[in-house]
Amino acid sequence: MRWHRVRRRYIGWLSLSLMSFTALMLLITYETRWVHPEIHAYFSQSGNLTGQQLATRSRRYLEESLGILLEEGDSEAVAQRARFQIELGYSLFDIGVYRNEYACTVPSLQRLDGLHDTLSRGIVPSPALLSQDLLAPIRCLTEIEMDQLDRRARVTNQFVEETRRHQTQVLMGSLAIYLLGLGFWGMHERRRRQADRATRESLRWMAQALRDPLTGIGNRTALHDDIDAQAGRSLGLILIDIDYFKPYNDALGHPDGDRLLRELVALIAKALGGEARLYRMGGDEFAVLLPCDSAGTLERSCALVVDQVRRAALSHPDHPAGPHVTLSVGGVQFIAACEAFTEAYAAADQALYWVKAQGRDGWQTGRVMPMDRVDSP
Ligand SMILES: Nc1nc2c(ncn2[C@@H]2O[C@H](COP(=O)(O)OP(=O)(O)OP(=O)(O)O)[C@@H](O)[C@H]2O)c(=O)[nH]1
């Protein structure tokens, strides 16, 4: 459980995946860096005479001496030259490895010792004796050569086998690390997609929570959020209420009432342009928030809303004062901040109800305290 927490906190799927790929890179680097020196070390006997090469050279000296003795006759000089060749062959033959591992070595060396003594005295032995004293060591050296070659072949085969096994292990190891890395990456991608989906879902819910489903514009919560987001800016708040909407509903029915609500939203948005934001406060009351740096801007905006609806001449079958839909509008300019908004809202509301009281179909701006202007219909 604790490990689970530590893993989730410090080791994400992405970092596990990166660690796997890094391990893979290190393994590959290690292999390319070290395998070749290892191979080199394995066969690095070049430069030294191997067991087989010593035997070959020794045999050649002995064969040379045999040739001298058999072909160049019986003389002191011939004996000395042959003795010299035998000394050379002897020195390469008389090594510990041969003595210990090949039974024919010691008797062969003894024969060579005897032959060397004879030749030192200037005597060339008979061919029969020579064939015993020299051919036996030559045969022994040939056996040694053959055996050394076999050994070398065995060592080479063993090395090849080991290399193949090692390569298989490295290949399987790399594959496992690679698959592990892919698995971690897949988990990371899955988690990321889940998180993205959850974020999108929350955003959708949040957007829905801030929207009026009938008209598609923001609701009261959205208005508060937008004011928070624009804290410190000079804004205009306009409240709009449909005049005699209840009689409209009663005369035409709620579906037509809904249609009128949507139509009015479109008209107001068109009148105020892209910078204004519309909100439905509930029932037949709307609010508008717009950048506003002067009382003149606010007044122009209020007038635009009222005029746009007047010009649209939407039919109202039960309006006591005329045949068309009209609006009552109240506006206020304020510096956005939570506390200021409560006062601004109250002032705009007061201005709106002043218009209602004056007979509707008009606009009025207010200040946080006194009202300063009336536009009578
Ligand atoms: N069609 C429709 N009507 C609604 C909706 N919400 C509220 N209403 C109606 O809007 C009407 C609001 O009427 P009131 O606020 O009483 O006043 P009014 O008739 O507009 O009169 P004044 O505001 O005084 O001019 C009510 O009849 C509500 O039933 C809605 O979503 N759709």
Characterization of this structure:
InterPro entries: Diguanylate_Cyclase (IPR050469), GGDEF_dom (IPR000160), Nucleotide_cyclase (IPR029787), Rev_trsase/Diguanyl_cyclase (IPR043128). It comes from Halomonas campaniensis. One of its GO terms (cellular component) is plasma membrane. It is an enzyme of class 2 (transferase). With 377 residues, this protein is α+β, with helices and mostly antiparallel strands. It folds into two domains: 1-205; 220-375, Reverse transcriptase/Diguanylate cyclase domain (Alpha-Beta Plaits, 2-Layer Sandwich), CATH 3.30.70.270. The chain is 68% helix and 11% strand. It has twelve helices and six strands. β4 (327-335), α12 and β5 form a beta-alpha-beta unit. The chain starts with a helix and ends with a strand. 26% of the residues are buried. Mean pLDDT is 88; it is low at 370-377. Guanosine-5'-triphosphate (GTP) is lined by residues 214, 241-246, 249, 254, 257-258, 261, 283-284, 356, 360.
Concise summary:
The chain has helices at residues 2-10, 13-42, 51-71, 76-93, 96-101, 105-120, 127-209, 220-229, 245-252, 254-272, 295-312, 338-357; strands spanning 234-242, 277-282, 285-291, 327-335, 362-366, 371-375.
